[in-house]
Amino acid sequence: MSIVAIVGRPNVGKSTLFNRLVGMRKAIVNDSAGTTRDRHYGTTDWCGREFSVIDTGGYAMGGEDIFEAEIRKQVVLAIEEADVILFLVEVSTGITDLDMVMADLLRRSSKKVILVVNKIDNNDQIYSSHEFYALGLGDPYCISAMSGSGTGEVMDAVIAALPEDAGAEQADDLPKFAVIGRPNVGKSSLTNALLDTERNIVTPVAGTTRDSILSRYNKFGMDFYLIDTAGLRKKAKVTEDLEFYSVLRSIRSIESSDVCILMLDATAGIEAQDLNIFNLVVRNKKGCVIVVNKWDLIEKESNTMKEFAEAIRRRIAPFSDVPIVFTSVPNKQRILDVLQTAMRVYYSRIRKIPTSALNEYLLPIIEETPPPSTKGKYIRIKYVTQLASPTPSFAFFVNLPQYIKEGYRRFLENKIRERWDFEGVPIQIFFRQK
């Protein structure tokens, strides 16, 4: 699809306009400058034409924000990638030095630029917008991103400027893999290494990533969406509103994903917050791959990796049938194994087992090891089938389902896992009245 990038200096309303164009609150909006850092993608359509929209961080120079240089790099990448650029300015401040710098940068690019003056709420402000002709980028379009006023005319101009699509590719049904974990465990570094590009800003500062950033991966016969998320800290430690919204976006990414890649810091081991995040994945019935990053920093002996994996499985029990991959992202050590393992978990999650195969395998095992009788009642399981649900769920039809204990449920789950590969996938077992 064609791509439209929204650029401008900080706090002119780029994320507000982005959210309005894509029709949902995908980007975090806040009054403080520098809220957006990474490039943020979404899709929209107008008059039957679908295209991608990129939200960028505010282009700034000479400030105290340590992310400025990285944000500028992301803006330049967005400009290079886009077919049409929406240059957003603010009517109340007039033309600033940063606007002039950005206008100069855009004039030197070969891209079609549409000048958009934001935060116009009355006729007097429309008259004030005429000073932006001095930027040399043509007629300004007057809008209010907050209320939506004037955005229709901007969309008409965008459609007129877009090149002909080579044919939009439908990819909504692709798997979604969310990279999750505590702050500063290497989530953005892993995403950049896999995509082989500086897709997300990486710094040693915890909390660098704020929005959940979605990218498409299409290499080595694999095609899926990769979602980089903000780090999840304990609720008591989240004091800023921005981090609160970042955490919400990360949780939504877990809820909308198929497989979660949970990253741990090898130097810290598995901590209580890692277990909280893992339990969140299990509660949402998502596939899970545990990635132990920074493995190059660990002093190793002959069984170090095996002992580390066993220690993790003890902590995450009873659901310990989860693949564990040890990586060093800067050295690109085993990072492709992460994707191959995630794909295997995804296919396990959507696996459907024929009812005949289930009964042929499980009924003799149940007959040999029946559920313990309770209160003199003999419990009989006559039939089992897999339910038509998005995640592996099995229904056992029983004469007295209320008397089956949790231990026997685990026994049946283990037998299913022994026969079929459901590694990394939570299994639900239901007992129903025959």
UniProtKB/TrEMBL annotation:
Pfam families: KH_dom-like (PF14714), MMR_HSR1 (PF01926). GTP 2 binds at residues 181-188, 228-232, 293-296. Keywords: GTP-binding, Nucleotide-binding, Repeat, Ribosome biogenesis. Residues 2-166, 175-350 form the EngA-type G domain. The keyword Hydrolase does not apply. InterPro entries: G_ENGA (IPR031166), GTP-bd (IPR006073), GTPase_Der (IPR016484), KH_dom-like (IPR032859), KH_dom-like_a/b (IPR015946), P-loop_NTPase (IPR027417), Small_GTP-bd (IPR005225). GTP 1 binds at residues 8-15, 55-59, 118-121. Belongs to the TRAFAC class TrmE-Era-EngA-EngB-Septin-like GTPase superfamily. EngA (Der) GTPase family. GTPase that plays an essential role in the late steps of ribosome biogenesis. Associates with the 50S ribosomal subunit. This is GTPase Der. The lineage of its organism: Bacteria, Pseudomonadati, Bacteroidota, Bacteroidia, Bacteroidales.
